[in-house]
UniProtKB/TrEMBL annotation:
Its main location: nucleus. This is Leucine-rich repeat and WD repeat-containing protein 1. InterPro entries: Leu-rich_rpt (IPR001611), LRR_dom_sf (IPR032675), LRR_LRWD1_dom (IPR056363), LRWD1 (IPR052489), WD40/YVTN_repeat-like_dom_sf (IPR015943), WD40_repeat_CS (IPR019775), WD40_repeat_dom_sf (IPR036322), WD40_rpt (IPR001680). One of its GO terms (cellular component) is chromosome, telomeric region. The gene is Lrwd1. It is found in: Chromosome, Centromere, Kinetochore; Chromosome, Telomere; Cytoplasm, Cytoskeleton, Microtubule organizing center, Centrosome; Nucleus. The lineage of its organism: Eukaryota, Metazoa, Chordata, Craniata, Vertebrata. Keywords: Centromere, Chromatin regulator, Chromosome, Cytoplasm, Cytoskeleton, DNA replication, Kinetochore, Leucine-rich repeat, Nucleus, Repeat, Telomere, WD repeat. Residues 287-675 form the Leucine-rich repeat and WD repeat-containing protein 1 WD domain. Pfam families: LRR_LRWD1, WD_LRWD1. Belongs to the LRWD1 family. It comes from Sclerurus mexicanus (tawny-throated leaftosser). WD repeats lie at residues 410-444. Residues 7-200 form the Leucine-rich repeat and WD repeat-containing protein 1 LRR domain. Residues 215-231 have a biased composition (Acidic residues). GO terms for biological process: chromatin organization; DNA replication; establishment of protein localization to chromatin.
Amino acid sequence: MSKITTELLLERAVPRSTRLRKIETLNLSKLQLKTGDLDPRLFSRLRHLQKLDLSDNLLDKFPNSLTLPDLRVLNCNNNKLEDVTALKQFPLLEELTYENNVYLTLNDDYKVMFLLENLRLLNGKDITKLANHVRRVNSRKLTSKVTAHWEKFFRDQLPEKHTAEQVKSIKKKFLKSVQTNVVYGPSSLSEFTRWRVKMIAEEFLSYSLGLELNSDTEPEEKMDENEEESTESPREAAEDVAQVVYIYNPLVTVTPSKRKRNHSKSGAGNKRSKSQANTEEEAEDVSAEPLHFLQCHSKGNSHEDFKTQLWSCVFEPVLDSGARKDPIVSSSKTVATCGGESVCLIDCETGTVLKKYKVATEEFFSVAWTTLTMVISDSRKKAHNILAAAGRRGIVKLIHVAADFCYGEIKAHKKPIATVCFSPTQETHLFTASYDKRIALWDIGIPDCDYNFKASQLLVLEAVSIPLRIALVPTCPEQYLLAGCEGGCFAWNIKLDKGQKSRTFEAIFQFPDDESLTTSHRVDGLAFLNDDVVVSKSSKPGCIYLWSWSRSFDTKGKGCQQTVSAVILAELEWSTTDMSYLTLSTCPAKEYVFCGDEKGSVWMYNLSNYTTAWSSPKGKRSERRISPTQILKWPELRLNGEQLPEILVNNVVSDPAFSYLVVLTSVNITAIWKKS
């Protein structure tokens, strides 16, 4: 019979408690406890336990399923522990002591530093800097060595058409060889190094060969399901991501079921042989190459999640670049992406997930950056990048990225927020567009050194249908806002010196529809190519228009509602699908337009040869549809040994200098391309 009972737990609680779920501190020291006395069923009821003292007992290990989701402090001094890997089940652990466990060594110290992202104190010592080195530098070096070992000694041993037995044999030889030959760090840490090398190698094989590995290696993902919010950085974020290894026979497929409403009208079938794919790819003028394929937004960090939709991404501005004056100089390699319950920061060059922020009950739809000048110590001021993230709950999260801290939230709407954007001229002004058919303008304020801030609503724009995309007019960003909505394209006057706080639209734009004009269509893509040219995408199959803002809308009008015809400059040739919400983006500095399709491809349009003619007062419309400069085909991926049938590109965004292209899909894969 176990020594631990409900009555004992209630009695040993500090202070004593009447219910297990209310216990936050528990002292179980000096009870001669053995591992078998720790009953997972009983401990699972300690949902709010934060401090646990198990010192001076006879424990040789921890059960794998104690389920203490909120545990922060653990004392295991004076036991007989032989292994520490089971401690990974306590992801929020900040302080850990296990002195006088004679079987534990320096290698075990490194294991817990790697496994426990939030750990600050180990046996009374601050290990923050060392732990960051272990999680980042050590892991990066070992991953590089493991990959190089495969490429040099084993890649050519695996036939293109291989059997299960051949794969099994190669795996066995590779795992043995890599653990023997990959060396890094002092010899005193050789056990830790072998442990990490085996873990990295098994994960590498799992995704490069597309087959699951049956092993007793501890899973590396962490889950924060019991905590509403969590910030992961840097190791946990890296471990949550499955870096999908692709086979560059360029072209391909991936995805389990997506939106049920897809009815593609794109005639010809999708099947093509590898030889056909290679022939076509060689014929293309390749201007970008696939760099990374990341699965970092999985629900519960599951590597089997190919259903989470990825929606929005935006590159981080460089702080010391004069970003608001020169967008090219402001280009960075770091991009924020969102989808499902998480927001990720990714280094596009290395494919490293630098940080990850999660809210278990949220589905994020949009992210946006701003740079605030904040007061730090000694009344000094310093510029910091702030990330706003919003989605299904109608709440805007404000994240100080450098501090790994979500310092506040704004309950902006009672319905989901479709998109957000900051003013380019007023750094604290944030627009939120919601399913409640309203677009709100907020002043988010500037947080003080204690992160106290005050947000206020400045304006509400009333829409007649759900706003999907918003864009501020570059020549007058403090006066006019455009919105692509479920029921058309609209413009509002947003000048704050006007009296009314709630406003209706000033203009609705008409677009060609077969033989006539219409205002009633879904506009699910909207962006400015330059100061005047607007790019908008309709749900009408194959329809992307370029039109002139200045020639379509009279800014000196009387301010009343008006229906105006968009002055069309050109139409872009695009997919004939009727799939909605595959949005577009622009790179104004390079005069490019990007839009993904229902087959995983990215359509790129270099419009630099057209913009000069369009800028003249009487510039004529291009009579023919403009064909894409290039279509980037989806490279061949093998996931769990299979090619998945359907990939939708929900969004595609380049950095301001067009060095990288980030592609967000319907199958929880972020693809990063690099311009050649």
